[in-house]
Specification:
single chain, alpha/beta, Aspartate Aminotransferase, domain 1, Aspartate Aminotransferase, domain 2, 2 domains, seven-stranded mixed beta sheet, three-stranded antiparallel beta sheet
């Protein structure tokens, strides 16, 4: 699919292996971006009627199809996932009990640590060893009896897919808010959310494997929780009733829309629609993307001859199908290696002692061989 990413791959000699962090956008995304501008000029004051009446429902439909949801009506959109985290937290009691893992992304980790400073109880379950993480999570929930459980589908600092997620969710009391951070799973790991759609929230966005860029995140709200009234609310959470005088109890929209915030840049929705249409047109499914990425991963690991980066450092090996679209090597030199590769026009990234390489459909075997040449020369 490399030919579909000509604009993002226009720099000769540069190797981008950070799809898990900043995924290149296919060329069709520019058409979406331009359409957003054209519609703003065309509709002016009526723009939001068009966005909420046409653009957003299409985007919701694409997301619902990818996840196997009954419809897109359970979805809310926001510029970032942190906005949804805050809105979900605002549904909890004043001193809630929270269970998460020790491998949640910064948008939740930083916020939850700040809440701990105010006396909020947050229990973090170790993810290592990965095979028994779900069991530890379930035992901790049984002990803590949390108001909120927040856990990733694919852990950002390892690429490991959480196994046994269904069992953990079903073991929790019906009133417990269960939120799954699916950012590293959406469009990377084939996900059928239908069995859990009535019970668990699902949070993700377009910046990574959906290839649509920033500003287009979404939240699936289970039917049983569509009567929640977030204290952190935006005026779009009552879109459709804005012309009425607001008196008495603050009204909320139905479905997932009551988790909407306020005015946002809708261009991300346009890009997402353009990319999803393109994927359908060329027959590019998540399963095909995953198979291609995993094939490139295996080629990369098989060709490693560097003492700096080796298969022995992998958090999840290439013989384990329970991994996402990036490989994580654990080394004290992660940041130094990342910088050394950057100097050789290779984009990777490092988180603490984790060096990450991301793989996608814009790469081919020649790119992997070029990467190996530079990595092995370290």
């Amino acid at each position: 699919m490399k030919e579909h990413f000509a604009r993002f791959l226009a720099q000769p000699g540069r190797l981008h292996f950070a799809a898990h962090s900043h995924h290149p956008w296919p060329d069709v995304s520019l058409e979406g971006q331009q359409q957003a501008w054209s519609d703003a000029a065309r509709f002016i004051d009526d723009k939001w009627d068009h966005v909420f009446g046409t653009v957003l429902p299409e985007a919701a439909g694409h997301v619902a199809k990818e996840l196997g949801l009954a419809s897109g009506a359970s979805l809310a959109f926001a510029p970032n996932t942190h906005e949804f985290v805050l809105r979900l937290l605002s549904c909890l009691p004043e001193r809630p009990r929270i269970v998460a893992t020790d491998s949640e992304f910064h948008s939740f980790e930083r916020q939850s640590r700040r809440l701990e400073e105010e006396g909020v109880q947050v229990e973090r379950v170790p993810t290592l060893p990965f095979g028994s993480a779900a069991e530890r999570l379930a035992l901790t929930c049984a002990r803590v009896k949390p108001h909120l459980v927040f856990v990733s589908q694919v852990f950002f600092n390892s690429g490991a897919v959480l196994q046994g997620l269904d069992e953990v969710v079903r073991s929790l009391p019906a009133e417990t808010l269960v939120v799954i951070d699916g950012y590293h799973g959406f469009c990377a790991v084939p996900t059928d959310w239908a069995p859990l759609q009535s019970r668990a929230f699902y949070l993700a966005g377009g910046y990574k494997y959906a290839m649509a860029g920033e500003g287009v995140c979404f939240l699936h709200v289970p039917p049983a929780f569509q009567s929640l009234r977030p204290r952190n609310t935006g005026w779009y959470a009552a879109f459709g009733a804005l012309q009425e005088k607001q008196v008495g109890r603050v009204p909320y929209a139905s479905g997932g829309a009551h988790f909407f915030g306020s005015t946002f840049d809708p261009s991300g929705l346009y890009r997402l629609n353009a990319v999803m249409r393109w994927k359908e047109r060329v027959g590019l499914t998540t399963a095909k993307v995953r198979a291609h990425a995993h094939g490139l991963q295996r080629r990369f690991v098989a060709g490693l001859k560097s003492q700096k980066v080796s298969a022995a450092q992998l958090m999840v090996g290439v013989d384990d199908e329970r991994r996402g679209q990036f490989l994580t090597f654990r080394t004290d030199e992660a940041k130094a290696i990342c910088q050394a590769l950057k100097a050789q026009q290779v984009d990777t990234d490092a988180r603490d002692d984790r060096l990450r390489f991301g793989f996608g459909v814009y790469q081919d075997e020649g790119d992997v061989d070029a990467l190996l040449e530079r990595v092995n020369a370290l």
